[in-house]
Amino acid sequence: MSEAPKPVLETRALRKAFGGITATDNVTFSLPPGARHALIGPNGAGKTTFVNLLSGVLPATSGEIYLNGVNITNWSVRDRARAGLARTFQINQLYADLSPLETILIAINERENAATSWFRPLGSRSDLVDEAAALLVRLNLADVMQARVGSLAYGRQRLLEMAIALASKPQVLLLDEPAAGVPEGERDQILDVVAALPADVSLILIEHDMDLVFRFAKTISVLVNGALFVEGTRDEIARDPRVRQVYLGEEEIAHG
Amino acid sequence: MIPESPNKPAGWLLGRTRWRWYELAFWAAAASSFFIFPSKLMLISEIFILGLLAVSIDLTLGFAGLVTLGQGAFFGVGAYAAGLMAQYGAGTAPFADPLLGLLVAGFVAGALGFVTSFLVLRGSDLTRLMVTLGVALIVEEIVTQAKDITGGSDGLQGVMSSPVLGVWSFDLYGKTAFWYALIVTFVCFWFCRRLVNSSFGLSLLAIKGNPLRARAIGMPVNTRLVAIYTIAAAISGMSGGLLTQTTQFASPDMVAFHRSADALLILVFGGSGFLYGGLVGAVAFRVMQDFIGNITPQYWLFWVGLVLVLLVLFVRGGIIGMLIALRERLLRKGEGS
What we know:
- The structure holds 2 protein chains of 2 kinds.
- Chain A is an alpha/beta fold.
- Chain A has helices at residues 47-55, 77-82, 100-111, 126-138, 154-167, 184-195, 210-216, 234-239, 241-255; strands at 9-18, 21-31, 36-40, 62-67, 70-71, 85-87, 172-176, 202-206, 219-224, 227-233.
- Chain A has one domain: 3-Layer(aba) Sandwich (Rossmann fold).
- The longest helix of chain A is centred in the C-terminal third of the chain and has 15 residues, at 241-255.
- By secondary structure, chain B is mostly helical.
- Chain B has one domain.
- Chain B contains 15 helices and no strands.
- Chain B is globular and about 60 Å long.
- Residues 1-6 of chain B have low confidence and may be disordered.
- At the A-B interface, helix 2, helix 3 and helix 4 of A face helix 1, helix 9 and helix 10 of B.
């Protein structure tokens, strides 16, 4: 952390209040390029709220967000996505009636400004279709490419959720609990995909699963009650007794 | 599940947009009705026109997920625009040219659709329903009150279009009207079919399925909705123009609220989201009206209501949905034996 490179994503005193409850409390945070950063914290710490602020799903009450040095605080979800900020959702946001191939094509068409083509039939841009198919192959979804998304197993829907975000070739990727609810047998596939993400993509991982966090994150921020509690490298956080107290204490309650 | 051609995903997508035999059969049947029911040509023309109106609603409701109760306004505006053109031209080209009249009808209705589309972007389904209904009522009132232009409750009298392409003049038996309505409906339908099978069409499905996800992908959701609402309004306007030109008459009935309701009903009968639902629904609706009207004319609405309730409760996707379910069951039976 000696000479910090210019951050891709930055927040300054970011705050979000829902009535009297402060869900995000003065978070000043920066993400260097190529980061593998995890955001952890007990239930209700405001992790998802923070991601919603970053991606523009929720407007900030005060504070600023910068993407590549540009103030994007008042940008729409769509503009942030176009600028290279992609996210997955904790609860799948998929198209049950479409196929994975079409789902990925929707994202690629938007990225390539091909979605306004109204006369040529879908599939006539075979370069884009091939790219979509290749992405699905990479994510182990080749065999269900043409199936109905609604009929896929949950773990595979989770993979597709990540595939959509990747299809936009993001610079910053926000993964909101990618492995949440995925049965044990299918988790490895998710872990493999996270591990194989391109090195130049800056990653923020929100996760409850400590195995996943300590396997992939190089740096970690701990959120407690909406505020940044502590930040550091993986090893620093692993050794920090305060984190153990906050985190493991909650784990015990959760399991008890 | 074994994909048909795992190595050719582009071919798979393209294959689904190809014309099927049953589509060709449908249009062949539509054309052959000219010879089978020579005494009902006006009625059949009206079925095409109603069907086209329902297809335009399908674009917004079935593909983009925009509920609307006001498509009748665009239909009516188109009907009057075409009527005024013909009246102004006094039965001679260029102003009374039916194709020019249709284009003007589509343009005027499309312009109204574009302006009002911004009202529809806001709010939930219920808000949209009310906004579209409100716009339709306003248009209806303006048309009936602007007596100097529209003839008020008397409607436009003496709407005479010049011969189609300068050759075929509209006759008393509705022969020209039949072919004219059929061909215009087909061309508009073909355009809609290209539209929904394109990348643009897929993006509409994405908005209908999950607007949050669509935005997160970077999709300009509102721009797309404005575009499809405007296009649908223009097509509604053209169907209205068709009705005026083929019946040589425009009346306040053409902007009346029941137009919107009937067209929506027709689409639900036929099945929304298939594009053919509007056309099939229009046939079913008119045939039913004719059939029941002969037996118990006073209970017509009772039967419409009953069929509507049964369809919505028990059949997903109306008549087309029923046919698809039937086909799948037959295919499964075929595999089983």
